[in-house]
Amino acid sequence: MAKKQFKAESKRLLDLMINSIYTQKEIFLRELISNASDAIDKIYYKALTDDRLTFNKDDYYIKIIPDKTNRTLTISDTGIGMTEEELENHLGIIAKSGSLAFKQENEARDGHNIIGQFGVGFYSAFMVADVVTVMTKALGSDQAYKWESAGSDGYTITPCEKATVGTDIILKIKGNTEDERYDEYLEEYRLRSIVKKYSDFIRYPIKMDVKRTKLKEGTDNEYEEVVEEQILNSMVPIWRKNKNELTDQDYENFYIEKRYGFDKPLKHIHISAEGNIVYRAILYIPEKTPFDYYTKEYEKGLELYSNGVLIMDKCADLLPDYFSFVKGMVDSEDLSLNISREMLQHDRQLKLIAKNINSKIKSQLQSMLKDERDKYETFYKAFGRQLKYGVYSDYGANKETLQDLLMFYSSKEKKLVTLDEYVSRMPEGQKYIYYATGESIERIDKLPQTELVADKGYEILYFTDDIDEFAIKMLMKYKDKEFKSVSSGDLGIEADDKEKESDANESEHKDLFESMKTILADKVTSVKASKRLKSHPVCLSTEGEVTIEMEKVLKAMPG
Ligand code: ADP
Ligand code: MG
Question: Where do the segments described as A lie (predicted)?
Fold first, then answer.
């Protein structure tokens, strides 16, 4: 039996497709420019493999021509063009990508970087246009053809006049009703900003005629309006350049240009990964905590590019939460342009990139800690809390990654120290890593509980952040040393003369303790003679895992 083909209702399919794939109308321009760039890549590729052709870079460009009078926007390219048959095949069948076919045909050879391969980008033009007209002349052909469609009722292909090889896409911009008026896409400034946003790193010049008022020649106060052809894109992205061609200033400028932050970056990481995963990235560790960083409003993520074209502003999947402060961009050639967010989540390539990035950030922080201590402390003051959250969250799954990046204020050094520094200078006989919890360094300094430990010559870590104690509870130990709060019942410090003294005190003042307990009733579980006090008369201590400070935090938590 002959199999019948499904007949898709093309208008509905078109609507469905366009509206589900694209969330912003403005990306139609990105799609058309990408197609134009692909078409130029193809002619370039042909020139590489065909001796009769020469490729003169200046002859290849994309031009955007807004025409307010006729309400048209033209995207013109000097690319390979389309034959009548190609028009039929590539623009007549939805979701058939000519670029994918081209890629497959030329798989064996290298030298092209074609963006399209999904076969729907072109139709995004119908989001903003009533009628789309394509005038095209293919390389090696004498006849040009015109394809025209109003979207719903099919298309026509007729011969037409066109002098040069290449393609003009002419959009009749919608303006029928109030909510379907897209006059903005005829405005110079708007077009310029869309090009900057999505297509800044297209390798060919994207040109536009712009009006400019200029000082009239030979005068010093008379102005005239001139039309000037400008190139809108900067073409070579900084991440494609070689590290040794770039200065710190270049990286800083890029950070500012991209508005990654209003501060200066503390550190940049420039990655060009080859091998299993091929991608380039420029990442930044900011210097200051963004004002909304520790709020729900803060959105983590990196810009994601597919071969120089922006596909997502903030790709959250590229960064773990504990490195959510990292800013920057990733460019990979292997991602499809019109891939949706849902698809990206499952993209294997993307997962590999994320993993790779994660370890690069970690090693960068480690070397900063080792070689640029001051910088690291600046970083830690801004984002250390996030690392501690990282240790605590996901049931401690990331503690291995993060524990060496942690720092705490030390009683001994009077500055931030790492756990490794603490442990490596523990005197013989010290069993635990001691810490004290409190609101501030000054208050902890006054805590009676710290006296005995300090007296022993042991270093104490000061926990002044709510999260500190929760984080180390998750760590449990560091290099086999357990953490111990100075206010816990058993400090693990060798008994000495004080032991006997307090035992004697205990029995001698039994009555006193008992009446104190009666007065304090349910506020305390017991009253005892302490072995740890020196100059203070009294202190509070806890039994069990939850310390007084943790109790406070837990009580303050909602729910
Ligand atoms: P994709 O770019 O993902 O292949 P599109 O819907 O954007 O899908 O384009 C469909 C096909 O139409 C392209 O693969 C290409 O073969 C052809 N095409 C589109 N625009 C042009 C152009 N400006 N010049 C030459 N061919 C083009
Ligand atoms: Mg395309």
Answer: 1-341
Nearest CA-CA partner of 382 in 438, 325, 439, 420: 325
Task: Give me the torsion for CA of 297, 300, 303, 306, rounded to 10°.
Answer: -120
pLDDT digits (tens, 9 = 90+) for 234-255: 888 899 999 998 999 889 988 9
| Ligand 2: centre distance to CA 342 (Å) | 20
CA torsion sign for 235, 238, 241, 244 is: positive
Q: How far is the CA of 216 from the centre of ligand 2 (A)?
A: 43
Burial class (CB in 10 A: 0-12, 13-18, 19+), 290: middle
Q: How far is the CA of 119 from the centre of ligand 2 (A)?
A: 6
**Is the CB of 166 within 6 Å of ligand 1?**
no
Per the rule left: phi > 0, alpha: psi between -120 and 50, beta: everything else, 235 is left
| pLDDT tens per residue, range 25-52 | 898 999 999 999 999 988 987 887 787 8
Q: Evaluate whether 256 touches 268 at the Cβ level (below 8 Å).
A: no
